[in-house]
Specification:
heterodimer; A: mainly alpha; Helix Hairpins; 2 domains; two-stranded antiparallel sheet; 7 helices; B: Substrate Binding Domain Of DNAk, Chain A, domain 1; Substrate Binding Domain Of Dnak, Chain:A, Domain 2; 26% strand
Chain lengths: 209, 622
């Protein structure tokens, strides 16, 4: 990758450190390319943070306020790409989601299964959730809410550990492991929704604002 | 590479860019000077401009202290807390209007308009008047330097319409808006400037009319907002209102319901409640005292801090609910917050401090002046934006999810709340009829599932789709929230590569044409008519002094020596005469002279108060 203006080698497609300009970022640039990090599920969080602030200083619109409207607009969109790339890489589930798609794995529509052991637990949790929703103010409800929330959070950590095992080292394109990652991601989606519902019950506002 | 702006022709410093805190109750400007932000205040006076507008029977509207003094005298033409109306429709502000003595109508496109002396004012215009006054004060503090570029703060929880309304107000005031930034984020900049430590900071910002909580990660000069939450209708005004309710209930049962309807009473009760609240921040008990001579009302009520705390307990509870949601979105526990920073005048209420401390389990920072810290932070941002400072980087978030209404009335979310800005999202659409060339959709902000429960930003109309059979067009609509937190929409038909035009019909907002129209229609005249406004300000100020003097003339007669008394009477007459003409110099001279002549009277009154206090009488009895 070279800068279209000064031909300097680019560290990131966002901007050229040489001429100090934000660039028009190609649509296909991956979050790993944008943050100049090696492709893979494992991520060096300290390095990710450092790059966010280093590249942020290159492209944030704050530093383009005195430049031409075109340069400012490029900075706006390059910043948006940086922020999106960071959001994908910083979140374990989002990163796994991106990798499954990148490696040609199934999407949530074509692979709807949940991990087998998970199904039985889901039935129990659903029952507990319904009871809590019906009587959120009943005595002992707060303690039960907390207990369920910590159960769900613990299970979430297990799911993420399973994803880690499946994606490190990175499986080959089209590997059956990708279907299993998708199943774990489906489970995560269920857990996150259930945790949201619990949070809403705790605020005494099931509709969430 | 730092940019230094220098005018090479005359080697002067460039025109300064200021930070403006446009508050519900007070507004203030600050500027970057010699390595730090400072508040802009004319020598010897406070720079704080009360966000109050008074529309006199003739002449231009008056803003600030002089306007606030008119509240009881002429309540029907004095507007408070206009910020609560920004970007809102009539239906949104019904409860707000109930306690206000003026008529409100709605424009064709759902914009609230207040009717004052037969002229309709939009909240944008009234806010513009406040911004002009702030600019004048800033200009005076800068020794007459012009001020035309500004960073303006808004509550973090303001939606797109409210941000746009603020931007339009600034345009009407003739200000070039460098950036709209969030109040708690601005506060964190001012706070973080002196604090070298890194970690998680929660900014608890309870102002006159709005509440925000923002959670930030600060590290190596990067201020990254992790989440924000809040309530744009919760603030000090609501605390006052609890005391006012108490007064209305008790007075109503004694003096009858008719009294409660009087505009003079309504403003008097507001001011008495506010005064009582402020006293309760430093004293364990206070007294609400209401005197409305026209209604022959003289009412007192002792209020203890405990009683006040109980009246407001649920309001504080609501702020803590927002804190919990913000922390949950930031995926942090209260114990993981390293510092809590209090911002906004209402954080002076002891019960607020106590409950925030209990909830976070740590003593909040109170060393910053909660009235100034937002403007100071805005000045830091103005300095960054004019190319002055590159070691600080601010990364903020969008407070509300953005979505598009689907055919069934549900919301298809395209950008989640607490996404770092700038951010973009693209959604694909197609046509449902043959040769359809346009598409109409409703963009909403909010967290609810149904579009009708969210806030509509307006109808967006997509035009210029090339004619083709139904379902073949592939229209990519890009939603971009810029660094101001304001939405931009662009669309492209992908099979032909044609750019479709987007027409925005903002809800509760002004179109560009309307802003232009207002600027032309005399609003611009008022803007540059410093002279006329100064004349109006002075007349009001002298009027207030005249009333206060006449009220105490009998005391002056008995207490002052003959010469001093005659001097006072003479300058009183001269001041009154001066207000009959529009001569600025004469008014200025009369005011200064009058002020000098009233000094002995003020001293006398103070003395009387002190003596009566010594005789065991209370201050309020004097």
């Amino acid at each position: 990758m070279r800068c279209p203006h000064c031909q300097a080698e680019l560290e990131t497609p966002l901007a050229c450190a040489g001429c100090g300009d934000a660039l028009a970022v190609p649509a296909e640039a991956s979050p790993f390319e944008i943050l100049a990090l090696p492709l893979g599920y494992s991520i060096d969080r300290a390095e990710l943070k450092k790059r966010l602030s280093r590249f942020g200083r290159l492209v944030h619109p704050d530093f383009f306020a005195t430049r031409s409207p075109e340069a400012l607009e490029r900075a706006e969109f390059a910043s948006a790409r940086l922020n999106a790339a960071h959001a994908t890489l910083a979140d374990d589930a989002a990163r796994a989601e991106w990798l499954v798609r990148y490696l040609g794995g199934p999407d949530a529509e074509s692979e709807r299964e949940l991990p087998r052991a998970f199904l039985i637990e889901v039935l129990e949790w659903n029952e507990e959730l319904e009871q809590l929703a019906a009587g959120a103010n009943a005595p002992g409800a707060a303690a039960r809410l907390d207990a369920l929330a910590s159960n769900l959070a613990a299970r979430r950590a297990e799911n993420l550990a399973a994803i880690q095992r499946l994606l490190v080292p990175l499986p080959a394109r089209g590997s059956p492991a990708l279907s299993r990652v998708r199943q774990e991601l489906n489970a995560l989606r269920y857990l996150d929704r259930a945790l949201d519902e619990l949070e809403a019950l705790r605020s005494g506002n099931p509709a969430r604002r | 590479m730092p940019y230094i702006e220098l005018n090479v022709l005359n080697n002067t410093l460039p025109e300064p860019a200021v930070g403006i805190d446009l508050g519900t109750t007070n507004s203030l400007a600050a500027v970057w000077r010699e390595g730090r932000p400072i508040v802009l205040a004319p020598e010897g006076r406070s720079g704080l401009v009360p966000s109050v507008v008074y529309v006199p029977s003739e002449g231009t509207p008056v803003v600030g202290r002089e306007a606030r003094d008119q509240a009881v005298v002429d309540p029907r033409h004095t507007v408070f807390s206009i910020k609560r109306f920004m970007g809102r429709g009539l239906a949104d502000v019904q409860s707000e209007l109930a306690a206000r003595p003026y008529r409100a109508t709605e424009s064709q496109r759902g914009l609230v308009q207040l009717e004052l002396r037969g002229r309709k004012y939009t909240p944008q215009e009234l806010s513009a008047l406040i911004l002009m006054k702030v600019r004048d004060v800033a200009c005076a503090a800068l020794g007459g330097q012009t001020v035309s570029r500004a960073v303006i703060t808004v509550p973090a929880y303001f939606d797109d319409a409210q941000r746009q309304a603020t931007r339009d107000a600034a345009r009407l005031a003739g200000l070039d808006v460098l950036r709209i930034i969030n109040e708690p984020t601005a506060a964190s900049l001012a706070y973080g400037l002196d604090q070298r430590d890194k970690g998680h900071v929660a900014v608890f910002d309870l102002g006159g009319g709005t509440f925000d909580i923002s959670v930030l990660a600060i590290e190596d000069g990067v201020f990254r907002v992790l989440s924000t939450n809040g309530d744009t209708h919760l603030g000090g005004d609501d605390f006052d209102e609890r005391l006012a309710e108490l007064a209305r209930r008790e007075i109503g049962s004694v003096a009858g319901a008719r009294v409660l309807e009087e505009p003079g009473f309504q403003q008097a009760v507001r001011l008495a409640a506010e005064k009582c609240k402020i006293e309760l921040s430093t004293q364990p008990e206070s007294e609400m005292h209401l005197v409305v001579p026209e209604l022959r009302l003289n009412w007192r009520r002792r209020v203890t801090r405990e009683e006040f705390d109980a009246l407001c307990a649920d309001l504080i509870g609501r702020t803590l609910d927002c804190c919990r949601r913000a922390l949950s979105d930031a995926k942090l526990k209260p114990a993981q917050i390293d510092e809590v920073v209090l911002v906004g005048g209402s954080t002076r209420v002891p019960a607020v401090r106590a409950r925030v401390e209990a909830w976070f389990g740590r003593r909040p920072h109170t060393e910053l002046n909660p009235d100034e810290v937002v403007a100071l932070g805005a000045a830091v941002q103005a300095h960054i934006l004019t190319g002055g400072k590159r070691d600080m980087l601010l990364m903020d978030v969008t407070p509300l999810s953005l979505g598009v209404e689907t055919m069934g009335g549900a919301v298809d979310k395209v950008i989640q709340r607490n996404t770092t800005i700038p951010c973009s999202a693209t959604a694909g659409y197609t046509t449902y009829a043959d040769n359809q060339t346009g598409l109409d959709f409703n963009i909403v902000q909010g967290e609810r599932e149904l579009a009708k429960d969210c806030r509509s930003l307006g109808r967006f109309q997509l035009k210029g789709v090339p004619p083709m059979p139904a379902g073949l067009a592939r229209i990519a609509v890009r939603f971009h929230i810029d660094a101001d937190g304001v939405l931009m929409v662009t669309a492209k038909e992908e099979s032909t590569g044609e750019t479709a035009q987007i027409e925005v019909q903002p809800m509760h907002g002004l179109t560009d044409a309307e802003v232009e129209g207002m600027l032309k229609s005399g609003f611009a005249h008022a803007r540059d008519d410093f002279h006329a406004r100064r004349v109006a300000d002075l007349k009001i100020e002298i009027g207030t002094m005249v009333r206060a003097t006449e009220k105490n003339l009998h005391a002056a007669h008995g207490g002052l020596d003959r010469e001093t008394f005659l001097d006072l009477e003479e300058s009183l007459a001269r001041a009154k005469a001066a207000t009959q003409k529009d001569d600025l110099d004469a008014l200025q001279k009369a005011r200064d002279e009058f002020e000098r002549a009233t000094l002995p009277l003020a001293a006398l009154l103070m003395n009387n108060v002190a003596q009566k206090a010594l005789m065991g009488k209370k201050l309020g009895d004097v």
